[in-house]
Amino acid sequence: MEVAAITSVVLFCFVAVFQLLLASGLPLGEAAMGGSHRVLPANLRVASALNALLLVFMAGIVLQHAFQFSDLLRFLPTTILMWVIIIFMGINTLMNLISRSKKERLIMTPISGLLFILCLWVV
What is the pLDDT of residues 80-105, one digit of tens each? Predict the structure, then answer.
């Protein structure tokens, strides 16, 4: 379980950095959000920044669930939140799989699918 948790945290952080790069205006938009924009417009940049925060929060939930690393976060219902993350990653994988963007299908589908499996393993 520890390897799955650490691997998923690394992947969540990797995707969070990718989202921050999108939010900063780098021309990576063909691999995200349907792939219709090379550089994301302002509203999608805000969405990318919020996605980055959500991904870091998900990584924290995985860490807390797997390792109980902080007494300050013991109040979090991590089992329930892990199932929410699993459902979210399952839907995310399906959405990436049916994306019109070939880059999104080839890059993001395997990452989100792997995160789905790893989070299942952690639970």
Answer: 999 999 999 999 999 999 999 999 99
Domain that holds residue 27: 2-122
Dihedral (CA of 4, 9, 87, 84) sign: positive
Rounded distance between C-alpha atoms, residue 94 and residue 75, angstroms: 32
What pTM was estimated for this model as a whole? 0.90
Q: What domain count does the chain have?
A: 1
State the residue for tokens 């940049």: 45
